[in-house]
């Protein structure tokens, strides 16, 4: 964490297991990006972009990070795209 002056104030680390990205995870993300009404030709361009995007071997360590009004950090653990419910 850095202060308003840019100086380092603290470092927080959490042990976590690396979770491999699966073909099902990739398929769900592709579907999320390719749903809905899109103008003609846009879908093909989006498919080309997704096909050219490098795929990570593991899921990220976390998703969102929020700092509340009193300075508490709330870090959301990363969930698979195939997990539809968030706690």
How does this structure look, described?
The chain has helices spanning 23-33, 42-52; strands at residues 62-67, 73-77. It is elongated, with a radius of gyration of 18 Å. Helices cover 25% and strands 13% of the residues. By secondary structure, the chain is of the alpha+beta class. It contains two helices and two strands, in the order ααββ. The protein has a two-stranded antiparallel sheet with strand order 1-2. It starts with 22 loop residues before the first helix and ends in a 10-residue tail after the last strand. The longest helix is centred in the N-terminal third of the chain and has 11 residues, at 23-33.
Estimated radius of gyration: 18 Å
Helix vs. strand class: alpha+beta
H and E order? HHEE
Specify the biggest β-sheet.
Answer: 2 strands, antiparallel
Low-confidence segments, ≥5 residues, pLDDT <50? none
- End-to-end Cα distance, whole Å, is 26 Å
| Overall strand count | 2
Calculate the mean pLDDT score and round it.
86
Number of helices: 2
Proportion of beta-strand residues: 5-15%
The proportion of residues forming helix, as a percent range, comes to: 25-40%
Instruction: Give, in spatial order, the strands making up the sheet with the most strands.
Output: 1-2
Backbone shape: elongated
